[in-house]
Amino acid sequence: MDDIEGRIIHNKEIASRHYLLKIKLEKSMDPTVPGQFVMLHIPDNELFLRRPFSIYDYRQKTLSLLYKVVGKGTESLSRTVKNAKVSVLCPLGRGFSIKKRDRYVVVAGGIGIAGVHLLIQRLGKKATIFFGCNNADEVPLMGKTAKFNPFVSTLDGSYGFRGNVVQLLEHHIEELEEKDIEVFACGPEGMLKSMKALLEKKRIPCQASFEERMACGLGLCFGCVKKTVDKEEPYKRVCKEGPVFDIWQVCL
Amino acid sequence: MASLSIKLLGKTLRNPVMNASGTLGYGKEIEPLWGIENLGAYVTKGLSLKPHHGNPTPRVWEEHQGLINSIGLQNIGIDRFFSDYFPFFKKKKTPIIVNFFGFTEEEYIACAERIKPDRFIVALEMNLSCPNVKQGGISFGKDPVLVHRIVKEVKAVTKIPLIAKLTPEVKNLYEIARAAYEGGVDGFTLLNTMPSLVVDIRKRSVPLKGGLSGPLLRPVALKAVYEISSRLPVPILGSGGIMNYQDALSFIMAGACGVQIGTATFIDPYTIPKIIRGLKKYLTQNKCPCIGDLMGVAHG
Q1: Using alpha carbons only, what angle is made at residue B185 by residues B123 and B246, rounded to the nearest 5 degrees?
Q2: Which positions in chain B touch A233 (Cβ < 8 Å)?
Q3: Residue A167's domain is classified under what CATH number?
Q4: How far is CA A102 from the centre of its chain?
Q5: Reported ipTM
Q6: Do A111 and A71 reside in the same domain of the chain?
Q7: Distance between CA atoms of residues B227 and B51, nearest Å
Q8: pTM of the model
Q9: Tell me, what's the pLDDT at A45?
């Protein structure tokens, strides 16, 4: 883990309000586990804190982040020009832990693809992938995931299955759960909640990546917590004990 | 050779730079980036007699040049801190200041009683901003009579020096400080965060009420340090929006003998070691043999 300086070498809109950002780091980042994240210092005096982003991809000192414009920070980032200097605290948090299974199932909702993209690249053909988004315009968010033949849903039905990604998963879950599987997920909390309900009957092993308003990213401030079933210490830090949690431990 | 070491309440610290309570986790979290032994002293996360779960989210909110937090004093409790974490600080020969709180007078007293003197404990730092659940939730630190009494009661049960951390949300800070002083307090931390809130105009609601920290608070804390240090003869730790060594120096020159760094660490986790290096360089460049020589020089 280190705070590494870098320069933005690419910052382009790939779907409406969704951007792919590439940063050339001055030195190599420590080995990263899929699901880990970075705290990015965006060069804008209006912003006080860093912002957390999933590590979308990383190779040869080039760090890629996929982000959606949702607030002040990402709005500013989308306007940040090539060559701008940034600093990146990385890699942070606990990522996905991959145990040996017959089959892996990856479920991503919208910008949640950013949190599992690296995982999908590592799992390759051993994973069955479900990706859901709003409409056909957002399908390019899949990027390289497309080559693994994912099942795709759109809310408006303009591409693939009409409905949300959990409804799509529901059509396949019976067949999938005949094998020893584990589900990896990232997406909005509503999606994780309905997915948890779907997996409840057989309590299928499932790890999900969560997000929360964050200040430090290092476990220093206890600002970004998720409530878990742990009676003694229910609130666990998303930046330290997470962002990936065993979904059965999280109160949703 | 310029020296950053200071004397604080009978102990020698290697430098005057500390973290503010609750901004450096339980201490171990920063180790991947820099060693805790760099600190003059580590100030613990606020500890209570029993573990405390803290508040639901959102707990943090960004302000322009500030941060509002409502962590709700989540902590593992005094006993677990001393069994699981204190040995780490002893091994690293890093003195600590134990920040503690309660929701009743009895809890404050029981906390202080529970902590046994140790050569690595510099002081207890009493968080007086907590709501007093027995008196309508008004914070202890706003009532001089209560402050005087609680300080006196805590002093009666511990041999460890006692520092009071005061809230800025009072009409007359000196009146509160004097009440604590007359109760026997050995020093002050000035100031705690400023109570504040956020309005979400889209949802027409208040998503968060909490304590404001960061540079916005700095001049306010500086004034508190300047005034209290000129009127009461006890050491003061300055805290409030210190972002760099220049800010740290301004607190020392205003009369603080040590400084606490909080919010700045969230923006740059290397802020503390950078401030230590900056202070050292300043002393060398200005041919100042000892940081203590600068204490209070702004008073003229």
Answers
A1: 65
A2: 51, 53, 76
A3: 3.40.50.80
A4: 23
A5: 0.95
A6: no
A7: 36
A8: 0.96
A9: 85
